[in-house]
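Note to self: keep these together.
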Amino acid sequence: MNKLIQKKQGFTLIEILIATGIFSLLMAVTSGIVAQSSGYQAKIKALRTVSMETRKIADFVSSEVRSANALGSIRYRDDSNIPRSLSYSTSLALFSCSGGFCAPKYRLESDITGIADDANLDSNVLVTFVKREGIIYAHVLAHKDANEGKFYYAEVSLASGELDINEVYAENESSEGRVKSVSGESGVLVKFGGLAPAKDDLHHKHPYVTFSIKAKTQGYDSLSLTQRASASIRSMVDMRSY
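Structure:
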């Protein structure tokens, strides 16, 4: 009787090995499910971040264009390094700035079919003129990096004269300065196009701005597929007053 009782106590080595194998298999399956779920959550978070980033900038650009309600002048230096000046017949101005030089990019035709063509998005600076409490301000929206980087905004009072676009474009972002970053954590690439006539240039045409915004997770190329995401928006916005 005692021998029978002793045989029923404990497990054999084979039973222990089988139980251990089953437990290990269950743990592996569970860990895989948890890891996959975490990966999906990271991907969703990355997609949400870049999507919100592009939408935020698109709304900002649209609001600036529709709020433009004044006329102004801009002083600039192009690659000839000769000081020049333009007075605008509408509240919009487009410039291409790089390497310390800025050149106006106003269109002489209003072909909105160009919205689908990247070749027409050849400007990285948009200026809107806004009159507030009797003072005209220039709002400068600029993308300074050749690739994905930051998108900047500056408000400059024109009470003392013209806007110096080269000076504002060269100014770095600072907590106390007038140049601020509009973009957040994502790397962005913003391009402009459209019709922004200077004085006497087809001022009877309706001015508009087309823009393209592309955003990527910072460090995109070095991240895993579940940690990186990208988003883009292409749109056109008309001025309300012109």
